[in-house]
Write a structure and sequence with these properties.
The chain is an all-alpha fold and about 475 residues long. It contains 20 helices and 3 strands. It has a two-stranded antiparallel sheet with strand order 1-2. Strand 1 and strand 2 form a beta hairpin. Helix 1 packs antiparallel against helix 9, helix 5 packs antiparallel against helix 8 and helix 13 crosses helix 20.
């Protein structure tokens, strides 16, 4: 028996059941960019101490090599939209896949610290592109009835990419007898860790040839017939193709192309709602979450944990990150964005404060005392869990919903840029701060987590259940 496509009360069209599997494949293929986003962002965790030893550099220089990829991320994110509008979403994915591949090979075979930094920037550019093009493509291809669930593939792919990178790092470290500079296939272990990304990067590129171009881009390029074919492919044969094409054309013509000057106003340069978006982005990063993904192995080794165990703890933290993300996806539409953010903030304060307490003790024989060591380990997992089930997902939901239609695109771009800059600030400063005083560093992160509570209570409005047109 075949079903027909019926518009729901909200106007959303149900996808043909026999087409849903194909649509899921398309969304999953596009989300491979998210997997690479997560993988490339966190794989460096396994190479930090080896890079320090290989090039004999201090914490400040090391931090710049780690953080410099974020410069590429910001540039890639800022330019991906224009590239995709000019040459298409699929071509943009293919460029991203090539950059991921080139970055992986270059990072695995660097001649010096300087070209390693260059390959990191190239990888960052690919991350930035993937962070923009994946969600945009999925939103344009997915049938309305399944858009929310298919859109979640991107975030799920990111956290899975983080976890897989840590698992691969741990496996390679074991193969190298616990030495990050031990030999594997004629290379040092850390080089292989960075080079393994070639595999998912090539797979991403190949999958991009197996999925169709976005109907929205095809229509903008005057390729209406091909757009009809794709719409039939993803939404079923029983839809009115002419009506769907006309609907997309009307939406494109009626869109307001927001620009930077639209954001100006109020007493402090930007409109208040833009500052709230920037605040959400900055708080998301200033709690120190990326320390857990870029430096966790180094952190545990600095308090006496064996390298192999430190890599395993990085992997378990990534699994907790996945669990928290799933919890957020389940509850964000049930209990609302603000309550979830507040719950997460309270949990992060507890986890970070306990880490600050544990790291305040002097090392005994190069290790934290047993009690403090276990408290630090459990607290780190608690912190990541509460971040993942709240701010890790909620901030992106807020940023997609909170701005008025006429400034949404430009405001989202500014808020995302603020997030990359804040990410860079935390990533670049952590090694030097940790050398100075690790406990005080975590006190700083605790303070930002605590400040996020009154910020949400006073300035952030709930967006659950509201139409985008209601945002004023």
């Amino acid at each position: 028996m075949t079903s027909t496509v019926q518009p729901s009360k909200s106007g959303a069209r149900e996808a043909h059941p026999e087409h849903l599997g194909h649509v899921i494949f398309i969304a999953a293929a596009a989300a491979m960019g998210g997997f690479l986003f997560g993988y490339d962002s966190s794989v460096i965790n396994g190479a930090v101490e080896a890079i320090r030893g290989r090039y004999d550099i201090g914490s400040a220089a090391l931090a710049q090599v780690i953080a410099i990829a974020l410069i590429g991320c910001a540039i890639g994110a800022a330019t991906a939209g224009r590239i995709a509008d000019r040459i298409g979403r699929i071509r943009c994915m293919q460029i991203s896949a090539v950059l991921f591949t080139v970055s992986a090979v270059g990072s695995a075979l660097p001649f010096s610290l300087y070209d390693l930094a260059f390959w990191r920037v190239i990888g960052g550019f690919a991350i930035g592109m993937a962070s923009v093009i994946g969600p945009a493509y999925i939103a344009e291809v997915a049938p309305a009835a399944y858009r929310g669930r298919l859109g979640a593939f991107q975030q799920a792919a990111i956290v899975i990419g983080i976890a897989v990178s840590q698992l691969v790092n741990w496996g390679l470290l074991n193969a190298a007898d616990g030495d990050q500079r031990g030999k594997i296939m004629g290379l040092e272990a850390w080089q292989v860790m960075l080079g393994v990304m070639v595999v998912p990067a090539v797979l991403y590129g190949l999958l991009s040839f197996a999925i169709p171009e976005s109907p929205r881009f095809l229509i903008s390029a005057g390729r209406d017939e091909r757009a009809r074919e794709v719409l039939k492919e993803v939404e079923g044969e029983n839809i009115d193709l002419d009506a769907r094409v006309a609907e997309i054309e009307h939406a494109m013509k009626s869109e307001h192309k927001s620009v930077f000057k639209d954001l100006l106003g109020g007493s402090f340069f930007f409109k208040p709602i833009v500052w709230i978006g920037i605040g959400l982005s900055v708080f998301q990063q200033f709690v120190g979450i990326n320390v857990a993904f870029y430096y966790s192995s180094t952190l545990w080794q600095s308090v006496g944990v064996d390298p192999t165990e430190s890599f395993f703890y990085s992997f378990t933290t990534s699994i907790i990150n996945i669990v928290g993300t799933v919890i957020a996806m389940i509850f964000v539409d049930r209990i609302g964005r603000r309550p979830l953010a507040l719950i997460g903030s309270v949990g992060m304060v507890v986890g970070l404060a306990l880490e600050a307490w544990a790291f305040s003790f002097d090392l005994v024989d190069g290790k934290l005392p047993a009690t403090q060591g276990w408290v630090a380990l459990v607290a780190a997992h608690v912190f990541v869990l509460f971040f993942a089930l709240s701010w890790g997902v909620v901030v992106w939901v807020f940023l997609g919903e909170m701005f008025p239609n006429k400034i949404r695109a430009a405001a989202l771009g500014v808020a995302a840029s603020a997030q990359w800059i804040a990410n860079w600030a935390i990533t670049a400063s952590f090694p030097s701060l940790a050398d100075w005083n690790l406990s005080v560093t975590y006190v700083i992160y605790t303070v930002f987590a605590a400040l996020s509570i009154p910020f949400v209570l006073k300035y952030v409005k709930e967006t659950k259940g509201k139409a985008l047109e209601e945002m004023g």
